[in-house]
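Schema walk-through. Below, the input block comes first and the output block second. Nothing else is stored per chain. Lengths vary across the set, and this one has 155 residues.
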Amino acid sequence: MSEHQHDPSSITLWNYFRSVIDWVQAIFPKKRKEMKGLAWGLYYNEHGKRIDLDPKKLELEIQRLMGDEDVTKKSGIYEYLLTGEEKKLSIRAFDRRDALAAYEKQGHKCAICSEEFEFEEMHADHIKAWSKGGHTTPENCQMLCRDCNLKKGNQ
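--- output ---
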């Protein structure tokens, strides 16, 4: 929009604005308060020409994610659906109590390499990844050393 702030006519800017609004309404027809204040112009610029965005499938996924208690940033759902970047959802992390319980249960050893580490040198990790249906519960927590956690990724 700043590109057109000095144009002699606002028609170009208005047309762009309408294009963004129409696009959002077409792919996300159900209005929610979480949509307010998002960078829709930027999303439109990057994803506006995509033909793989099915509004019905997106709505089902929005409903699922809205109901998922591990998703702590509900407004991030829309950007996640466009980019696939899980970090936009701020998935709930294991609390210290659950991490300590897993650490003790594992005998202070990494669940992958079996080497012993201090608690502060380990990471609480989902055994079954959140993206594959795992939840942030004590039963799904394992402690990994930094190196093994980085190698594991989203498996």
